[in-house]
Structures are given as structure tokens and as C-alpha cells.
Specification:
Elements (H helix, E strand, L loop, with lengths): L1 H14 L8 E7 L3 H8 L9 E5 L7 E6 L3 H5 L8 E6 L12 E3 L13 E3 L6 E3 H4 L2 H5 L2 H8 L6 E3 L20 E2 L4 E2 L28 E3 L1 H5 L3 H7 L14 H12 L4 E3 L1
Parallel strand pairs: 8-12
Antiparallel strand pairs: 1-3, 1-4, 2-3, 5-11, 6-7, 9-10
């Protein structure tokens, strides 16, 4: 038993970098709880293996952001899987679309895009929406209303969408929205308005920051094809109305599509 402990100690010393640079950041799922993980990260008589930055909202308390001087491969191959790692990945920013793949939507927006803004009640959702949203060509092509009437369904349960969040003040969505969760800030609430507001300058009292070039709005082509009444207004920018972030409104748009298909389902951003 003593020989095994010595071997583990020798292996750990061999894995340790001669001169630690900036620690690497990892997202790990482990079989250990917070207290046990912190203890294993700091073995006696050895430099720390890792540092637990914080938990990441996992109900079981087994998903963590950690830092370590080890690289991912060495972390996963610690003798006896000391950290109890089930899965791990480097914490890094990723581009969802390759640079240059975004399409440019002409400004001003086409006059016939979402042009029918007559308010109409929308099934049992409790609110009114633009007629151009409720009866948009896409919904007619896939025969949304036919499916709803033929099978007698308008949605149920909870639909969760991992996206940019949602506009909680959107009149078409308010009655079915749940609070959700913001994984980018590790806090309750899935409002995308947080990205363009602060305690000193709430969204409702000041304009969002202008984009570098407001001569055009950049959106993914699929987004442009299914604009809802909120996203259309977000992308319509000029010198008087600065446009918001290129991705702003995408989560609201996707929730709008889900709500169009299942208007009585609860939506969780």
C-alpha cells in the first residue's frame, strides 16, 4: 500500500510542468461534490492540482469550472482518476459561424417584410400578435394551423431553448415565458436584455450601444427568413435608431418560432 502511494506521488511529480504558466480553464463533470473536489485538488505535500472557480448550476452539484497548470490530456490521465472526472472540456470561446459566413440584410428592410402589423389574438396564448407573424408564409407552408386543428393540439409542457435568451417584455411571449437561466453569467433569468442594459442604464430608459457600422445589419440567412415582429424591429437600424448586437434577438426569434407552432406550451430561455 505504501509502495502504491509512493508510485502515485512520483507520477504526479512527473506530470507537473517544470515552470507553470497561466493556468488552463476547464469545465468538468465529476463524481465528487464540491468539498471532495477541493480536497483532491490540494493534495498534502504537493502543489495544487487544480483550483475550483465555481459550480455551474448543476442540480446535482457535480459540474464545475476549474483551473489547472496541467493540460487537458494530463488532467484526464491523472493516476486513478483522482478528480473523478466523467467528462471535461477546455473552457473557451467558439465561433458558431465561420468568419465571413454571415449574410448582409439590406437596409432599410424590404417594405413587404412583416408589413401586415394588424394586431390579432393568438389562440390561447393570452396576447395579440401581428397578423404578419401569426399567418406568415412559413407557417402556411408547413401547415401549422392545419396540424393544430386536425389533431386538436396547441402545445403543452415546457420547451427549453439554449440561445441568446429572450425579450421578457415581448407581448406575444409574456404569457408563456418561464424565468429560465443565464449560463453566461451563472445566474437565474434568461433575459437577453441583460446584454444591452446595466443597473445604471436600464434597457427601457436608454438606447443600446451602437454597432460599429450601422449601414447594414448582419444576420444569418436562416434568421432573415423567419423574422418575427421583435427581431424585425431590432435589425431595422439607422442613424436615429442604432442597431444592437448582430446576434441580439436571435433567441427571441427562435422562441417566436416555437410559440408559433406550440402557442400554449411554456417556454424556458
Amino acid at each position: 500500500m505504501r509502495l502504491k502511494s509512493v508510485c502515485v506521488l512520483v507520477l504526479l511529480c512527473g506530470l507537473w510542468p517544470a515552470k507553470a504558466s497561466a493556468d488552463n480553464r476547464f469545465i468538468v463533470r465529476t463524481t465528487l461534490d464540491l468539498q471532495m473536489l477541493q480536497a483532491v485538488c490540494n493534495p498534502p505535500l504537493l502543489p495544487p492540482i487544480c483550483t475550483v472557480v465555481r459550480g455551474l448550476g448543476d442540480p446535482l452539484g457535480q459540474l464545475f469550472l476549474i483551473t489547472s497548470p496541467l493540460n487537458l490530456n494530463d488532467l484526464l490521465n491523472l493516476p486513478g482518476n483522482l478528480l473523478g472526472i466523467v467528462d471535461a472540456e477546455v473552457d473557451q470561446l467558439l465561433n458558431l459561424f465561420p468568419i465571413g459566413s454571415l449574410n448582409v440584410l439590406p437596409t432599410p428592410l424590404p417594405a413587404d417584410l412583416m408589413s401586415d402589423r394588424t394586431p390579432v389574438p393568438y389562440l390561447d396564448s393570452g396576447g395579440s400578435v401581428w397578423n404578419g407573424y401569426a399567418n406568415q408564409p412559413a407557417s402556411q407552408i408547413v401547415r401549422v394551423s392545419d396540424a393544430q386543428s386536425q389533431f386538436g393540439v396547441t402545445g403543452g409542457g415546457i420547451v427549453a431553448d439554449i440561445d441568446t435568451g429572450v425579450d421578457p417584455t415581448h407581448p406575444a411571449l409574456q404569457s408563456v415565458l418561464l424565468p429560465g437561466y443565464d449560463f453566461t453569467r451563472n445566474q437565474p433569468g434568461g433575459s437577453e436584455l441583460t446584454d444591452v442594459s446595466s443597473s445604471s442604464c436600464p434597457f427601457t430608459s436608454c438606447p443600446p450601444p451602437p454597432c460599429p457600422d450601422c449601414s447594414s445589419a448582419q444576420v444569418n440567412q436562416s434568421t432573415a427568413a423567419v423574422l418575427d415582429q421583435s427581431t424585425a424591429a431590432v435589425l431595422d437600424c439607422n442613424q436615429q435608431t442604432p442597431c444592437r448586437y448582430a446576434a441580439f434577438g436571435h433567441g427571441t426569434m427562435v422562441m417566436g418560432v416555437i410559440h408559433l407552432v406550440a402557442p400554449t406550451a411554456q417556454l424556458m430561455p
